[in-house]
Amino acid sequence: AFTTSVRSSASASPSELSAISRRDSFASIFSTGLTLATAAPAFARGEPRPEYLTEPTDEFKESERQRDEFRRKQLKLKKEFTNVLDRFTFESKTEEQFVEDLQDLKQLVIITEGLPLGIKKDDLVKIIRAKKAKGYWPTAVEYNYQALIREIAYQQSPNKDKDVGNPL
C-alpha cells in the first residue's frame, strides 16, 4: 500500500498531495482522539479504594488517649504559669518578690522544656514589660528577667543539643 501511494503521489499534482495528506492527518487525529476518549483513566483501572473503617483501631484509640493526656498536662502547666504571672502582676511589690516570681517562671520553663500550649513568649514579654513600665524595676529584677528570656529562647531553639552532663 505504501508503494502504490508513493507512486500515485509522484504522478499527483501538489493540490492533490495536500488533500491526501490532510485527509490522512485528519483520520489519524480523529482515531487517536477516539482511542483516548474511550480509554479509562489510569486511576480508574486500579484496584478499588479501601472502605473507611467503621470502628477505630487500637492504635488510634491509644493515640487519642495520649493526646488527651498531653492536653490535660498542658492545661495544668498553663494554670501554674498563669498563677505565677498573676502573682507577679498584681501581688508582687518588692524586689525580692519580683525576683522570686521571675525565678519561679524560669524554673517552670526548665521543667516544661519551653512554654505550655496557650502561652506565647511575646505575651509573656508584654506582661512583664508592662509591669516594668509602671516604674519600680531594680537591677536584680532586670537580671532575672533577662535570664528568663534567655532560658525561653534556649528551650524553644530547634538547634540545641541538650547535653545534661555539661554545665556549659
Task: Show the helix and strand layout.
Layout: H1 2-11, H2 14-38, H3 42-45, H4 58-91, H5 95-112, H6 121-133, H7 139-156
Helix pairs in contact: 4-5, 5-7
What does this structure look like?
The protein starts with a helix and ends in a 12-residue tail after the last helix. The protein is elongated, with a radius of gyration of 38 Å. The chain is 73% helix and 0% strand. The chain has helices spanning 2-11, 14-38, 42-45, 58-91, 95-112, 121-133, 139-156. It contains seven helices and no strands. With 168 residues, the chain is an all-alpha fold.
- SS-derived structural category: mainly alpha
Q: What shape does the CA trace take?
A: elongated
Radius of gyration: 38 Å
Supply the number of helical segments: 7
User: Strand share of the residues?
Assistant: under 5%
Detail the poorly predicted runs. 1-6
Relevant terms:
mainly alpha; disordered N terminus; 7 helices; 168 residues
